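Can anyone check this?
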Amino acid sequence: MNKARNEILNRLHGEYKKKQSPLKPDFSSPIYHPLGKGLPALFKEKLEAVGGHVHICKSQDLLIDELANLISKLGPEVYCNDLELCKMLSQNNVPVKNESNIPETIKAGITDCECLVAHLGAVVVSSALKSGRKMFVYPPIHIVIADKDQIVGHLEDAYQLISNKYNEDLPSLISTITGPSRTADIEKTLIIGMHGPKEVHVFIS
């Protein structure tokens, strides 16, 4: 029995050794493939592939026009708790509300972001944003306003940016948003908007 067992193990070991590649991995090679296109265009492609909406505007004036057009379709229940964004929108006659207590009737919330990750089509947010956490979780529609300078290539670039910005005083929450909230935990049925917004709009100028 032992002889037969050893023969089998020896054959298995011989086959295993044959399949081992003599080549060693090149740990100096890049982890990611080249991005292949401009960061704004790549971000738009990736986010829209998962159901998000990206509005790339050539100027802030055009961004305001497109945002005002969207808000006019949503109605009066659009809120923004970032005072700087509220001031900018108010100066351009874009009607938004500002209240600390978000009502159940809210249709959309407007926030800024920490940055945008082109490789993933992801919006990076944190608890340190002036809009607060509720605005990118509770409203059925999340509207993000960002600059092209906030777009980075990969997730590690985003973490480095946040680390440089906050040093040792990191926000208690750092999260990524890639398209509308979705889950298929129950009966493998995909449900949009279960744990967050049903729509995500990103305006970039």
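Reply from J.R.: I decoded it. The mean pLDDT is 88.
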